[in-house]
Amino acid sequence: MARTEKPVDVVLVGFGWTSSLMGMELTEEGLEVLALERGKDRDTVPDFAYPKMADELTYGVRYKLMQRPSESTVTVRHNSNQKAVPYRSLGTFLPGDGVGGAGSHWNGHSWRPQAQELRLRSYVEENFGKEIIPDDMTIQDFGVSYEDLEPHFDFFEKVMGVSGQAGNINGKIIEGGNPFEAPRKNPYPMPALKRTLNDDMFTDAAKRAGLHPFPLPAANASEAYTNPYGMQLGPCNFCGFCERYGCINYSKASPHVCVNGALKQRKNFHYRTECNVLKVELAEDGKTATGVTYIDKKTGEKVFQPAKLVILGAYAFHNAHLMLLSGIGKPYDPVTNTGVVGKNYAYQMTGGTTLFFRDHNFNPFIGAGANATSVMDYGVEQIDFAKEGFIGGSILNAGMTNGQPIRNMPLPAGSPSWGAGWKQAVRENYGHAMSIGSHGSNMSYRDCYLSLDPNYKDEYGQPLLRMTFDWKDNDIRMTQFMKGKIEPIAQSMNPDEFRSGYKTQDSHWDVRPYQTTHNVGGAIMGTDPTTSALNPYLQSWDVHNVFVLGASAFPQNLQFNPTVLVGGLTFWAAKAIREQYLKNPGPLVKA
Amino acid sequence: MSEHIDNEERRKFIRSSLSIIPAVSLTSTLGMPSWANAATEAVDLDAYQPVFFNTEEWKFLLAACDRLIPAEGDGPGALEANVPVFIDNELNGSFGRAADWYMQAPFDESVSPLFGYQSPLTPAETYRKGIAAVNAYTADTAGKPFAELSESQRDEVLAALQNGDIELDGVSARNFFGFLLQNTKEGYFADPIHGGNKDMAAWKMIGFPGARASYLEWVDQKDRSYPLGPVNINGDRG
C-alpha cells in the first residue's frame, strides 16, 4: 500500500527543460508546484565543476551524466516480425539523467523550425499533391502554427541566451544570417560566437557554390548576459568539453544555469529527486488523473502524490511509456492503423563528410558546443519534393567541437585500426580534419512506433518500452541527395583526402554508434483525436488534466535539433493552461 | 615537440621534464586550487601488481597491448603509457561489472550485431574467458600461450580475432577483441587519473592540451599550433 503525500496543485514528472520552464510559469499563478525527478540533484557547482568535468573517459565515454540502462532502457527491433532485444548499453542515443536532464549534456544547437515543417502534410499536399506521399508515411500537421509559436520561441531564446545572426526580421532579409528562416520579431539576444578556421573555410566554399552560410544559432553565450529570470551567463571560453558534459563555465544554456536558480527561490515550488514515477493514477471514470505513484529510490517506499494537474515533462519516449503504463489514450496498433499512443516514433537522418588537410591546423579541442557554420539552402522549404523524389530536408553544418581524442579521432579511409600504422595515422591526422555534416529530417511511418515489450521488464517489474524502427527509402533518398551536395563543396576546398558516411538503401538502424538523441513522437499533437494523442495545447484528448510536454509531441521529426521547438511548445501550453484551463478545467478543444 | 627528435631522445626528455613537474604544480603562489594537491605519480608497469588479472592473464594483456599500440615510431606505445594498468582498473570497477548496463535475461545472441551488445557476460567475464580461449587456441595451433608468440604471430592472431576468423570457446571473439581494442585506446588517451596515458605522453604526441579547458583568446589565432603542453585533472603539467 502506497503512502499518500500531501496534495499539490501541479505535479511535474521529470525536471529537465520543460518542467523547469513550466514550473516558472505555473508558480506565477500562485499554484503549489512539485517536480519529481528520478535521477539525482545536479547543479553547476559541485556537479559540473572544473576540473573534474574535463574528463573524457568518465563523461564522454562512460556516460556518467546519462540515464543508465540498468535502471531504464528500451527494447529495439527493425520491424514487427522481429522479437525485440534490449538496448543494453548506450550507443545511438543518450537520454539524460538527473535535474536538468538532457539539457545538461547537449551542445546548444538552437534552431527554430521552418514554418512549413509545422504543417508538413498540408504543405506537401498543397504544393506537390497528395500522391507523392508514400502509403505507409504517416506525417501530420502539428496543429499549431509558426506564428502562434513565434513569441514563445523569442522568449525561450532570451531565457537560454542564444548567440546568433538573424537572417529574417519581420520579413527583411539580413546579410550574413539565414535567409531561409521564418520571420523573427527580434534579433538573437547575443551576437554570434567567434568564428574558427573551419567556419572561415566552409563559409568561403559555400559562398563560391552560391549558398548562404551563417553562424549556427548557439545556446553558448558569446558575452556576459542576464536573462529575463535574472540568471547570469558568462562568455563561453571554448573549453571543448560540451556535448556529454555539464558546462563548467555558466555559458551553455541549461535548466540549472538559466532557470532553476530563480525557480528554487519561489516558495510555492518544490522538487524531489530520486523519485521514479511509475504511473499516472486515474479517477474511476478514467477521465481525470488524481496524481502519480512513484518509488522513492532512497527508501524503496511507494508513494502516491495527489495533484490536480499532472504534467509529463520526462524524456520523449518516457512520456509515451508512462501514458501506455497508465492507460491514458488508446495504444497505437500498426495493423489496423488505429489508436494513438506510441504512434509516429521518428528519429533523425544524419550523414557527413570529413575532410583532411595536412597543411591546416584546426586545434579541434578549441570549440563551443554549437561552434559551426551552416547553410539551409537544402531545407524542407527549399526542395522540390516532386522533382527530387523525397519529402524532407536538411541543414548542413561545418562544426568544430568536442575534439577530445578517445571519441573524436577521424582518420582517412583505409587507415589501420591498430598497430604502428594506426599510431602513425593518429599522429599525422589529429588536428588536421574538419567535417561537413547533414542533419536531416526523418518522416514518420505506419510501422515505426512505440509499444510495451512483452518479454523484458525494468527493475520495478514494469514492461520496457519497445521501439520498432528502421530507415525508409524516402529518408535514404534525402540523405543521398545531401551527399550529392556536400561532396562537391568538400572537393572544392581541395583537401588532401575526404571520406563520407551516409546511409544507403542497404542501411538498417544500427544502435551501436552514436547518432543523435533527437527521438520524437509517441505522444503526438494534432487536431484530430483519432490520429493524435494530444490536442494542439499538448493536452491529452482523453484525460483533460494531463498535459504532455517535449518532443514526444512531434508528429515527425524536423530537420533540426528539437530544443527550441520543445521550449516554445512548453510556453505555448503554459499560456493555454494559465489563460484558459485554470479558469475552466476541462478539454481545451472539443473532440 | 616530439616530431623532430627521435624516440630515445624524446623519452629522455619526458623523463627529465617529469622530474621538474612537482616543483611546478605544487607552487602555491600560483593560487592552485585544493584539488591540485600533488603531482600524479605514475606507477612503474614492471612493479605494478594487477588487481583484476592473474599472472597468466596479465602476460597476455601486456603482449596484446604491445601489439595494438606498439612502441615503434614516434609517440609512446601502450606499455610505455601504462595502458594495462588502466585496463586493470577499469575491469575491477563499474565498467568491468557492466554496472550501468541492462543485464537481465533472456539473452539472444543470435540477433544482428546492429542491435548492440547482447551477451550475458560482463566485460570482466569476457576478458577472463577471452584470454583463456585465445591461449587455448594458440596452444593448439602454435604450442605456446599467446604471450610467448613472436610479434608477427601475435599480430596474426589479433587480426584473426578482429576479422572473426577465430571461433573462441564460450565467448564472442568480436566482443572480446572489441573491448580489448577500445579499452586500449581509452587507456592511451584518457586522463592519467585513470591509470594510463603515463606522463600525458599520448596527449603530447598529438598536441592535445588535456584538461586546460579555456581557450577564448585562442579562437582567433587560426592555423597556428597551440603552444602550451597539456595539464591533467590533478593539475600536473606535461
UniProtKB/TrEMBL annotation, chain A:
Identification of the protein by name: Gluconate 2-dehydrogenase alpha chain
Keyword Flavoprotein: yes
Keywords per UniProt: FAD, Flavoprotein, Oxidoreductase
The species this protein was found in: Marinobacterium lutimaris
Keyword Flavoprotein: yes
Entry's family note: Belongs to the GMC oxidoreductase family.
Listed PANTHER family: LONG-CHAIN-ALCOHOL OXIDASE
Signal peptide range in chain numbering: none
Annotated ranges, domain Glucose-methanol-choline oxidoreductase C-terminal: 446-566
Name of one Pfam family that matches: GMC_oxred_N
Domain Glucose-methanol-choline oxidoreductase N-terminal: from-to ranges: 233-346
TrEMBL record, chain B:
Highest taxon above the source species: Bacteria
InterPro entries from the UniProt entry: Gluconate_2DH_su3, TAT_signal
PROSITE patterns per the UniProt record, alphabetical: TAT
Protein name as annotated: Gluconate 2-dehydrogenase gamma chain
The species this protein was found in: Marinobacterium lutimaris
